[in-house]
Specification:
The chain has 99 residues and is mostly beta strands. Helices cover 9% and strands 26% of the residues.
C-alpha cells in the first residue's frame, strides 16, 4: 500500500472544530447526513479566522470551485490517490479557479 503524505492546510495552529468520525449534535446537520447517507463526519473541520489563507494538503488539480449548494462555497482538488474537498460557509471567500 502506498503512503500518502498530507500537510495541514494552513501555516498557524488552529483548533479542530469538528473531528473525523464525530456525530453532529445539530438536528439540521443530522438531516443532511441522512440525505448524504453519512453517519459520522468524514472530514476534519478547523476553526480559522476570516482572512486566513488555506493551502492544499498535497499536489493536485482544482476540478471545481464555487458555490456547491448544500456544501457551501467549496473547492475540490483531484490528487493521484483521490479527491480532497475543502469548503467554507462564508459567502465572502475568495477562491482560485479551476486548473
Amino acid at each position: 500500500m502506498a503512503v500518502i503524505h498530507l500537510r495541514i492546510p494552513f501555516s498557524e495552529n488552529f483548533p479542530v472544530s469538528f473531528a473525523f468520525g464525530a456525530i453532529p449534535d445539530s438536528e439540521e446537520i443530522k438531516r443532511k447526513y441522512r440525505q448524504w447517507r453519512m453517519v459520522r463526519h468524514n472530514g476534519i473541520d478547523y476553526d480559522l479566522p476570516e482572512g486566513t489563507s488555506v493551502l492544499v494538503t498535497a499536489a493536485g488539480t482544482v476540478i471545481q470551485s464555487g458555490d456547491n449548494g448544500g456544501f457551501g462555497i467549496s473547492v475540490t482538488i483531484q490528487h493521484l490517490w483521490g479527491k480532497v474537498y475543502m469548503l467554507t460557509f462564508e459567502k465572502s471567500a475568495r477562491l482560485w479557479g479551476i486548473g
